[in-house]
Write a structure and sequence with these properties.
Layout lengths: L6 E5 L5 H12 L8 H8 E9 L2 E10 L4 E9 L8 H15 L4 E3 L7 H7 L14
């Protein structure tokens, strides 16, 4: 595993909305759009993890919750330039640790089949049955 010299992952770290939008657009293939990420996360989330290589935001995961014992992983992203180096695992480890510290007993994640190895083998999630209802 290759770690950049100046890599850091931090819970509820500061970030610029534009930096997170750039990372999100790259990962999910949508055009850049103005988004008040910080306000949105503060309003709806348990927390988030930011990964930085120096001053460059290179990874992110959002953790929302039910206010009780269930937390949910959303928007796990790692910059293309930093993939394959263990950064995603590091993001998920911080998310799990901090969710546990907040009193959560369960951390849920939904993922596309091609991400199964990452979540199940690399991050330690167990497979579970789930359902999804498209509302749009």
């Amino acid at each position: 595993m290759f770690w950049p010299v100046d890599l850091s992952c931090a819970w509820r770290a500061d970030f610029a909305d534009d930096d997170l939008e750039r990372l999100h657009a790259e990962a999910f293939g949508h055009p850049l759009r103005p988004m008040a990420w910080q306000a949105r996360l503060e309003r709806h989330g348990l927390g988030w993890v930011c990964a930085y290589d120096g001053a460059l935001l290179t990874g992110f995961v959002n953790v929302v919750w039910d206010g009780g014992v269930h937390a949910f992983v959303l928007d796990t992203v790692v910059a293309a330039t930093h993939r394959g180096r263990g950064l995603g695992r590091a993001l998920m480890a911080v998310a799990a640790r901090e969710s546990r510290s907040a009193g959560c007993a369960w951390l849920h994640v939904d993922f596309a089949p091609e991400l199964g190895d990452f979540y199940l083998r690399s991050c330690g999630f167990s497979p579970s049955a789930a359902g999804l209802l498209a509302l749009a």
